[in-house]
Design a protein that fits this description.
44% of the residues lie in helices and 21% in strands. With 296 residues, the protein is α/β, with parallel strands linked by helices. It folds into 3 domains: 3-83, Winged helix-like DNA-binding domain superfamily/Winged helix DNA-binding domain (Arc Repressor Mutant, subunit A); 90-162 and 267-293, Periplasmic binding protein-like II (D-Maltodextrin-Binding Protein, domain 2, 3-Layer(aba) Sandwich), CATH 3.40.190.10; 165-256, 3-Layer(aba) Sandwich (D-Maltodextrin-Binding Protein, domain 2). The strands form 3 sheets. A 5-stranded mixed β-sheet has the order 4-3-5-12-6, sandwiched between helices. A 5-stranded mixed β-sheet has the order 9-8-10-7-11, with helices on both faces. It has a two-stranded antiparallel sheet with strand order 1-2. Helix 1 (3-15) packs across helix 2 and helix 1 crosses helix 4 (59-83).
Length: 296
């Protein structure tokens, strides 16, 4: 399909008639009619019902209109990027864990979008393992991780800052006043954990297996906010970053247990695939993360 013909097609819809479209585009009306005829013949369907001077879309026309808008937008974006190769623009797909999105990213994303308004920035929430897969498949441009230091050889990784983790309970929980808490003290306890595949949940469960700890129950919750509320209401012990529960720790609605078990070395990290082309938009995001988040 010719982009000029699609432009004419969309313009007819937006202006309401063939005549108005011809005036808007600076074409003779016969040119407009010819372009639509070529489009209809190539698609072997009728796109408009012509009633008097009005042009009403057929069902096929409505379907094409939706796709035509997308195609013309992609073409415009491609032209902009090719003509301005050094200016950050286009789409940038970023993966980030929920806790970082809520506590760290708002200010960073605001600054990035204000500085580079031509970039279509999109965020994806998921587990760190799924981020790895998405980077390898090319369905994400870059991702932020909360994990032990990444060792993946096919990823370029930047260590940003340590993310202290805590075991957390409500003030009414029996362990809240314990002087020290050891792995054995978790036996028979109700746990509130993030969804399977979450990197720090995997580390925590690995510790439970190492010490042969059997909890009373594990409630899996995909939302950090819901986990916080459940913990505040005394439904169990949770394992989250201190940053994610800073307000609750300050108010006293959650208590960080005096943990004497293994140390969890969780780091905030930025990673993209080794073979990924560093577009101006991607390079700008890497630079901003390093400027604002490195060793914060």
């Amino acid at each position: 399909m010719d982009l000029k013909n699609l432009t004419t097609f969309v313009t007819i819809i937006h202006t309401g008639s063939f005549t108005a479209a011809a005036q808007h585009l600076g074409y003779a009306q016969s040119t407009i009619t010819g372009q639509i005829k070529v489009l209809e013949e190539s698609l072997q369907t009728c796109l408009f019902e012509r009633i008097g001077r009005q042009a009403k879309l057929t069902t096929s026309g409505k379907i094409l209109y939706r796709h035509a808008l997308a195609l013309l937008n992609i073409a415009k974006q491609a032209e902009t990027e090719v003509k301005n190769p050094d200016t950050p623009n286009g789409q940038l797909l970023i993966g980030a864990p929920e806790s970082l999105c809520a506590e760290i990213l708002p200010a960073l994303v605001k600054e990035y979008c204000q500085t580079y308004p031509q970039v279509d920035l999109q965020l994806r929430f998921d587990t760190c393992q799924n981020f790895r897969n998405a980077l390898r498949k090319g369905t994400l441009d870059i991702a932020l991780f909360l994990d032990e230091p990444l060792q993946d050889r096919d990823l370029i990784v930047y260590q940003l800052f340590p993310e202290p983790m805590s075991l957390l309970v409500s003030p009414e929980h029996p362990l809240s006043h314990a002087g020290t808490v050891l792995p054995k003290d978790l036996s028979g306890q109700a746990l509130l954990l993030t969804e399977p595949g979450c990197s720090y949940r995997l580390l925590f469960e690995g510790m439970l297996r190492q010490y042969q700890i059997t909890p009373h129950s594990i409630l899996e919750i995909s939302s950090i906010e819901v986990i916080r509320q459940f913990a505040v209401h005394g439904l169990g012990i949770t394992f989250l970053s201190q940053r994610a529960v800073a307000r609750e720790l300050l108010s006293g609605s959650l208590i960080a247990l005096s943990w004497q078990g293994p140390i969890f070395n969780i780091q905030a990290q930025l990673a993209y695939h080794r073979d990924k082309w560093l577009s101006p938009a991607l390079q700008a995001f890497v630079d901003l993360c390093h400027k604002r988040l490195y060793k914060m």
